[in-house]
Amino acid sequence: MIIAIDGPAGAGKSTTARALAERFGYAYIDTGAMYRAVALAVAEANLQVPTDNERIAALARTLPIALKDNGQRIYLGEREVTALIRTPEIGALTSKISALPEVRHIIVQQQRDIARRSEQECGGAVLEGRDIQTVVFPDAPVKIFLTADLDTRAQRRLQQWQEKGEAASSQAAQQDITARDNRDSTREVSPLQAAPDAEHISTDALTPEQVVERIAQIVQSKLTAQQVRAVSL
Q1: Whole-angstrom Cα distance, residue 47 to residue 66?
Q2: Which of 34, 57, 102, 121 has the smallest CB count inside 10 Å?
Q3: What is the value of pTM for the model shown?
Q4: Cα–Cα distance for residue pair 108/174, rounded to 1 Å
Q5: Confidence at residue 14, expressed as pLDDT on a 0 to 100 scale
C-alpha cells in the first residue's frame, strides 16, 4: 500500500503523513527532506544554481541520504542533519535545487526504491511532497491533495519558525509561502498539481486528527478492496 500525499507548503502534509504512518505501521518518507539534504550539501560545497548545475547533479548522485527512526531523523552518511536542513536559507535553496531535472530524476528514483523496500518490510509507505501522486507514484491506490488558504498556511509557517526560536513576522511568513507556491506551481519539471483522481481535502476547518481520520477511512476501504480481490483470485 502506497499512500501519496501532496499539497502546498503549510497544508499539513507532514503532520498528516506521520500520523497515518504510525496508525497503519507503515514507513513515513519525507520526500522534501531528501531535497533539503541535497540543498545542504550544495550549500556546504559552495555550489551555485545555475552555474554549477552539472556539479550539483553529480553531487546528488553520490550523496548517502538516509531516513532513520521512521523518517524522523535525516542523515548524510553518518552525520545527522535533521536540524540543519530546516533553516529558511536551506528551504529557499531547496526550491531551486528541486527544480533541476537531473536532481529530481535522481531523488525520485531513491524515493521509489525506499518505498518499495518499505512495502516489503512493513506493508506500506506514506510519502508526502509535491509530486508524489503525479510523478513518483502515479499509480498509488491512495492519492490525497491537501489544501488550506494562504492565511492559515502562513500562520502555521510562522508558528514553526517561532517554535525554533527564529525571529519572524506574519508578513514574512505570508511572503515565504506565496513565493514557495509560485516556484512550486510554475516550475517546468514536476510542478505542484493534483492528480485527476486525487481526493481533495481542505484542512482549514479540520483538526489534524480529523484530517487523519478522513484519510484513514479511505485507506481502510482500499485495503478491504485489496483483500476481497485477493480472496477472489
Answers
A1: 22
A2: 121
A3: 0.92
A4: 29
A5: 93
- Hey, which residues does 142 pair with through a beta bridge? 3
Q: For position 219, what pLDDT does the model report?
A: 97
147 torsion bin: left (phi>0), alpha (psi -120 to 50), beta (else): beta
Give the chain's domain count. 1
Grid coordinates of 122? 512493513
Torsion of CA 104, 211, 227, 69, to 10 degrees: 60
Binning pLDDT at 50, 70 and 90, where does residue 138 land?
Answer: very high
Closest CA to 156 of 139, 137, 180: 180
Pairing state of beta strands 73-76 and 79-80? Answer: antiparallel
Contact by Cβ (8 Å): 102, 57: yes
As a whole number of angstroms, the distance between CA 113 and CA 197 comes to: 24
- Residue-number span of the structural domain to which 191 is assigned: 2-232
Residue bearing cell 477511512: 217
Residues 18-43 as b/e (b if ≥16 CB within 10 A, e otherwise) read bbbbeebebbbbbbbbbbbbbbbbbb
pLDDT of residue 161: 83
Q: Do residues 115 and 139 make contact, with C-beta atoms less than 8 angstroms apart?
A: no
- Across the range 22-51, mean pLDDT stands at 96
Going by pLDDT thresholds of 50, 70 and 90, the confidence category of residue 188 is confident
DSSP 37: H
pLDDT of residue 183: 85
Pairing of the two strands 73-76 and 65-68: antiparallel
Instruction: For residue 127, give the C-alpha cell.
Output: 510519502
How far apart are the C-alpha atoms of 62 and 106, rounded to whole Å? 10
